[in-house]
Automatic annotation (TrEMBL):
Organism: Psychroflexus salis
Domain of life: Bacteria
A matching Pfam family: SusD_RagB
Record has Secreted as a keyword: no
Listed name of the protein: Membrane protein
Subcellular location: Cell outer membrane
Keyword Membrane: yes
Positions of the SusD-like N-terminal domain: 110-240
Length: 508
């Protein structure tokens, strides 16, 4: 996978066109090739379009990708996974020595004040992906085209899926709730250089579904060489999330079918007990569906997800900004559940040297760690990868969708498949039905996917509350926050309101 995400000449062209130093609504710089020229060149040499798509994947792990001003909470897509985990309150900021995430995220200042940079970071990042995907789509003759060459079909399919993925995240972060008639986001479906007004949720979702369904068809024969790229099964997984987030009971069978297809077609498997304690650091883990191989070519260090979360990297999590599991959620994990050990510090020969673990427990000592497992370890991340999607989340989403569709037996079966690998006796699952079953699926989603950027989605999708009931939060202890509370949603950034004449206020 190293070759796929190296930043080469074409990726530098991508950054020149869409880098965060310039407004993403600016017209294309005249010194670069125009769309027609690129389209003509790509027909002769598909490697040109491949370079643009690979540039998007590289951008997703780019340091300072969102704001470009050197902030250590700005490191691509996983930056926002971390934002969402802290907003969900299942991840607690227990100690704040350096101040990252405290005011803007855990004290909800950014989600209530559009001048805070977190709003711009998330907005700019995903719209940059959209703009670059639109360029690739244009190079391939448009979203409705079916390129003659198979390689170009695969390029177009990936671009469409990436555009939908970006819109899914934007709606997640900038819409209080799923309301089809609400005007939420500017909808750019072409490589244009002008600002647009907000489109409705239904229009955004229609484009996402259209893109993903086309992508699934175009990626039918795509065989990726690693896991960094979106293939057919990953596109189906994204589509399952999109449909599930509509909360339309009549469509939950679609979600159940899609997630079943992902699990059966992907060749992946549920992570076993050894793997769930193995560090979540290897993209080759059979339970991972989509992820990035972090290697020396990417030059990733402190400014990274690992640099914020992992006690066994050169990190803030080692030096004094501790991200821990909410103690109330931890208490809900049975003592015989293997996942409880993910948050316990025990017995490794190096683990008694220079650690604050006994003073500040409940860090993910055995869930997320660099494979070298040296406290405050190497300054460059080379043996700890990024996970974007895995088999277990499809299994849980399948259980959730089946339960909502009234397929109690199928929901029980999926949940049992997970829990039989986590606790000695999972037979209790077969006694659950109705709301009790939904409650258990939601709880197991929170436990299984803790720290993976999925709980915030589950809260909004299921109209649940964010609960700060643990005693290890620095602020708002005891707060219960509804899924559609303004504090749970980012604001359209100040710069967008200033620069885009079609948007001059926040949503009503």
């Amino acid at each position: 996978m190293k070759k796929q995400i190296k930043i080469g000449i074409l990726t530098m062209l991508f950054i020149g066109l869409y880098g965060c130093e310039s407004d993403f609504l600016d017209e294309q710089p005249s010194q670069f090739l125009n769309i027609q020229q690129l389209e003509e060149a790509a027909e002769v040499n598909p490697a040109i379009a491949v370079g643009f798509v690979d540039g998007i994947y590289a951008y997703m792990v780019e340091t300072f990708a969102g704001r470009g001003n050197g902030r250590h909470d700005d490191f691509g897509h996983k930056s926002h996974d971390l934002y969402s985990d802290l907003l969900s309150s299942d991840m607690a900021l227990s100690v704040s020595t350096f101040g990252w995430y405290r005011a803007g995220i855990t004290e909800y200042q950014s989600t209530q004040d559009f001048t805070f940079g977190e709003n711009l970071q998330v907005w700019s990042f995903y719209y940059t992906i959209i703009r670059s995907a639109n360029t690739v789509i244009a190079i391939q003759g448009g979203a409705d085209n079916v390129p003659e060459l198979e390689i170009n079909q695969h390029i177009l399919g990936q671009a469409l899926a990436l555009r939908a993925f970006a819109y899914y995240n934007l709606h997640l972060y900038y819409a209080n709730d799923y309301n089809p008639n609400d005007e939420v986001l500017p909808l750019y479906d072409a490589a244009i250089g002008i600002g647009l007004p907000r489109s409705t949720t239904s229009e955004v979702y229609a484009l996402m579904e259209e893109d993903l369904n086309k992508a699934i068809d175009l990626l039918e024969t795509f065989q990726r060489s690693g896991k960094a790229q979106i293939n057919k099964t990953v596109a189906k997984g994204i589509l399952a999330y999109v449909i599930a987030s509509t909360r339309e009971t009549s469509r939950m069978q679609e979600v159940a079918n899609l997630t079943s297809e992902v699990m059966s077609e992907s060749g992946a498997s549920l992570m076993n007990q050894g793997e769930v304690l193995g560090g979540f650091n290897d993209v080759n883990t059979p339970g991972w569906l989509w992820g990035i191989d972090i290697n020396e070519d990417l030059n990733i260090g402190l400014v990274s997800w690992w640099g914020q979360v992992d006690h066994f990297s050169y990190s803030y999590a080692w030096a004094g900004d501790f991200k821990t599991i909410d103690s109330n959620l931890f208490d809900q994990i049975p003592n015989d559940d293997i996942r409880k050990l993910q948050f316990k510090f025990s017995g490794h020969p190096q683990e008694n040297q220079g650690t604050n673990a006994s003073i500040f427990p409940l860090q993910p000592f055995y869930k997320f760690y660099d494979s070298g497992r040296v406290i405050g370890g190497a300054s460059q991340v080379v043996s700890a990868d990024y996970v974007y999607m895995r088999y277990a989340e499809m299994l849980l989403l399948n259980a959730e969708a089946n339960a909502k569709a009234g397929n109690t037996g199928a929901a029980q079966q999926s949940l049992f498949s997970l829990m039989s690998q986590r606790v000695p006796d999972a037979s209790y699952v077969n006694t659950l039905s109705g709301q009790d079953l939904l409650d258990e699926i939601f709880l197991q989603t929170r436990i299984e996917l803790w720290g993976e950027g999925k709980t915030y989605q589950a809260i909004k999708r299921n109209q649940r509350n964010a609960e700060r009931l643990g005693t290890n939060h620095l602020s708002f202890q005891g707060e219960i926050i509804p899924h559609n509370d303004n504090r749970m949603t980012f604001q359209i950034p100040e710069r967008e309101i200033q620069d885009n004449p079609e948007i001059n206020t926040q949503n009503p």
